[in-house]
Amino acid sequence: NLLTTLVDANKAILHQKLSLLSLLETKFGTEDMHQLFTRVCPIVHASIGQHYRHSMDHIELAALVASTRASIHSGTGNIQHQHQHPHQRQHNDPVTLRYDLRVRGGTLEKDVNATRKRIQDVMDTFQNIDGNNEDHTQKSNVDNVNNDINVVDQSVKASFMLSSDSDSEMELESTIGRELGFCAHHAIHHLAMVKVIAVQTI
Asked: What value does the CA radius of gyration of the chain take, rounded to a whole number of Å?
């Protein structure tokens, strides 16, 4: 089903992130791995850690929204409180994913252990989106399939800053399924940038 496909795609990307960290540690040791994680590439003008943090900001938000689908129907989910100003919120409005409200720099770009924990926490969130473990993907009864369809089709809004000259945001109508797909696609792009950085700095 579609939800399982979207969840598996995001989990596969997270697994790639963890695998690269493990490879760096095995090949270069813990101390050098931390240095490589934060080393800025002269071509990209960013580090592996910065691209990890940026793409994780998006994936984490989409995962949390999907995991709180039960509260989205009433518009009272925690994600809406965190990412939407109170004066903008109406009780029955769909949740808004504000991708540009994120913290740049700091620990999540520099601390490999914190990054690993964050990735694992988001993987756990995806694992529990259906309120079940991976065995849920083997089930095919009608009730579960219909539940998945309801989740991916739930309405949300995606908010972006589309100009570097303004802090104003533009809201677009979307669905949970579309945002899970977008975040996977977005992360693939940043993993490609990570490859360029790795080639140039390692």
From this structure: 18
